[in-house]
């Protein structure tokens, strides 16, 4: 026994070294797994048609409204969104080589003059999503335009891993209306959502802006800011308080989403450094240059939903416009009805005056905004 005692320090040192190896291996596996998964999503879910859902990366569980055979169990499988009831993507599991990613392309309230283009939903990691579009008969929601969702907290395994979240991007120049966990949200560009049952939901704007509509309250959340709302009620997912005042978001938290945006979205998010050197919301809004970003647009209807929103191109041919007049950009020449634009003869004004890219035909008599 005495001869073994001098060897004990070396045995303990070897045990410690071996104990460290698995952790190091996991940190190496995470970036490679995420990179491989995102490349697969970019290839397998490319050119996703409108109102479709794509199986991006394993593991995903889904339920469908159809009792017939639906194939949705392997990467690149696609299903019509009308058939989808719920979707659950799973968190990163390095041991099994799994990380759930799903992609959806929805029409929402976008006009039919943009064939194929839609609102992109990307579910990263631990996200559970349930369609609620048919639950509210008072509004004409498209599939998955209204939904309940939750996200897992998880832990940061590597810098390349986006947090478990639902990230939504509207086509450039368009605003879309959605209802998430009972909260009306107008999304203009790229917004990330997270929600924990009986805790809170977070709306983080990565590019453009989001506007929440809650009873009489309207809250603008521009790029670089985030806001939260407390959740509760019987289901734990009902907003039980007003949306908070926006605060500066943590750019490090969302950097992996920005880095991967060019692979999974139509438009890559350029940068998260959009809030400048401001101390907070009040300081940001005190700058006259940000006045338009802090104010609720004049054309955002107060009486429930309206047919069009600032810059959504439904009734405005100028994709760079900050204001969408109800006369469709042609003073006295056209009017809006149910999200479409007509001239005074009842003909389709958009099709006659706007090309397929949504740009006004400047050869006509259309007035500038």
Explain this structure.
There is one protein chain. With 369 residues, this protein is α+β, with helices and mostly antiparallel strands. It folds into two domains: 11-284, Jelly Rolls, CATH 2.60.120.1440; 308-369, no CATH class. The protein contains five helices and 18 strands. The protein has helices spanning 8-44, 251-264, 281-286, 291-294, 349-353, and strands spanning 52-57, 60-64, 78-80, 84-89, 101-106, 119-124, 127-131, 146-151, 165-169, 176-180, 183-196, 200-214, 217-222, 225-232, 238-239, 247-248, 334-337, 340-343. The protein has a 16-stranded mixed sheet that branches. The protein has a two-stranded antiparallel ribbon with strand order 17-18. Strand 17 (334-337) and strand 18 form a beta hairpin. It is globular. The relative contact order is 0.09. The model is unreliable at 1-28, 301-332 and 349-369 (pLDDT under 50).
List keywords for this structure.
369 residues, alpha+beta, Jelly Rolls, 2 domains, 16-stranded mixed beta sheet, two-stranded antiparallel ribbon, 5 helices, 18% helix, disordered N terminus, disordered C terminus
- First-to-last CA distance: 92 Å
Low-confidence stretches: 1-28, 301-332, 349-369
CATH class of the largest domain: Mainly Beta
- How big a fraction of the residues is strand? 25-35%
The sequence of SSEs as H and E is HEEEEEEEEEEEEEEEEHHHEEH
Helix content class: 10-25%
Number of distinct beta strands = 18
- Rg on CA atoms, Å: 24 Å
Q: What CATH architecture of the largest domain do you see? A: Sandwich
* CATH fold-level name of the largest domain: Jelly Rolls
Which structural class is indicated by helix and strand composition? alpha+beta
Count every helix, treating DSSP H or I runs of 4 or more residues as helices: 5
How does the overall form come out from the CA principal axes?
A: globular
Total count of domains? 2
Q: Give the averaged pLDDT, no decimals.
A: 78
Biggest sheet features: 16 strands, mixed
